[in-house]
Amino acid sequence: MFPVSNPIVADIIALLSLEIMTTLFLILIVIVILTCIWLNDISSRIGVPTLLAFIVLGIIFGNVGAIPVYLDDHSFAKDLCTVALIFIMFYGGFGTRWEAVKPVVRESVLLASVGVIVTAGLTGLFCHFALRWGWAESFLLGAVISSTDAASVFSILRAKKLGLKNNTAPMLEMESGSNDPCAYMLTAIMISILNGTATGGSLAWIVFAQIVFGAGLGFGVAKAATWAFHKMRFNTDGFDTLFIFAVAIAAYAIPDLLGGNGYLSAYIVGIILGNEEFKGKKSLVGFFDGLTGLMQVLIFFVLGLLARPAELHKAILPALAISVFLLLVARPAAVMSILTPFRKYPFKQQGLISFVGLRGAASIVFAIMAITGVEVLDTQLFNIVFCIVLISVFLQGSLIPWAARKLDMLDARADVMKTFSDYSENTEMLFSQVKIGPGSAWEGKQVMNLGLPRNMLIALVIRGTERIVARGDTFLLSGDKAIVVTKAFEDTETYLLEKTVKPGEKRAGHPISEFSGEGLILLIKRGDREIIPSGDTVLEVGDVLVILKAR
Description:
Elements: H1 7-46, H2 51-63, H3 74-94, H4 98-101, H5 105-129, H6 135-144, H7 150-160, H8 168-178, H9 180-194, H10 200-231, H11 239-257, H12 262-274, H13 281-306, H14 309-339, H15 347-355, H16 361-373, H17 381-406, H18 423-426, E1 429-435, E2 456-463, E3 466-469, E4 481-487, E5 494-500, E6 520-526, E7 529-531, E8 544-550
Antiparallel strand pairs: 1-4, 2-3, 2-4, 5-8, 6-7, 6-8
């Protein structure tokens, strides 16, 4: 290549190169997304958490291939994962159905606080005495991996439809959704100790500020957001979602600015807002469900990008030893010391709760915080946490259904979806209007004599300006409008499509009954009119047909 002396030409070449790189980057994103979908399908078939696929994908893109995405900026990764964890914590609360977790809220809160401290302490002691680590780094690792991961657990319970006995699912949901703030506080304390900035007063202030500012400001933000949400009018679709999105960020940022626990605040705000009744909640649940899934994917993908397989061999043995200790000693000791005094949780149930304590996204974020917050570490903390998460998600996660069966904790009558705040939305009722015309089969009959199916009822009768709450002895008259209630139908195998009757088509000028096989015509849009058709309805050119089809 000859050097380009003309600066204008050189600038044009640079711009073209930048444009090409941008295009290649977009193509890379497409490849990542398609690969993620493929890995999601494979992971669900073999019964392991989907998030494991994204760790593998991150390792592949970060270490092999023609254009490896080499990420070595841990500070950038920490900031990225911190933002992601905000939404994971917020939705951990927003998606929790208070009615389901209320019976086990004391046990769940104790597991999420005292249980985390016991787990961190025992793991720290193991690292010091068994692995010969220094005291501070031992307890730092214990703090980093002391919380459990709700996403990994419930991706398995949902995928396998595992209903569990004795309120086990609600307890797991609230514990794993709310124990990250305590682990974060312990991690912050240990980072302060390792950096030599910790004093008795400073540690007391950290604990006070984390709990008081985190919880207090969380309740304040939640109440203010609830009041504002009910008072504001969102005239444009989607602005209510943007409002809650902003609230989630504020829930973390405001307490964090004052030294409070932003993750605790985000969880509290989430659980209060998630259990409020308001219009459009179903769309918000869907949005945050997707956003949280994306954030979890991002964290696990970043973990894969940061991992260096060539260095992991030194971390495998200590990670395996810590994982076994967590599974057999630390987690069971924490669970049993808390639940046994209640005397209503059998040891089989405590065993399953202990087994389901998977490590996941939060442990990754706290590990990145540790290696960026401490100047010198004598251990391969990040690589060890990487291996612990991998072992936990892959081995423990894939064995959860087996463990639930062996411990006789499955309940065919229990629905794991009842622990989520959108459960009632999944059984949404559908209201339809039926007009009673002269000669109708319903005219002059009492509601009790209509022979309606068990899953259908008439809730209301509109007679002129009068509204009558229907009872069994209510008579239906000509001109009445009967409001019929049924359970909403949701199915991926049926769908609606629109077709326009064009000039020259055979069906133009003919009744619907002469044509079959295309699907059921539910509605005809003719100019400004909407017609519910019958078999003798004649189609006209320009009619827009709304057709129900089955795959």
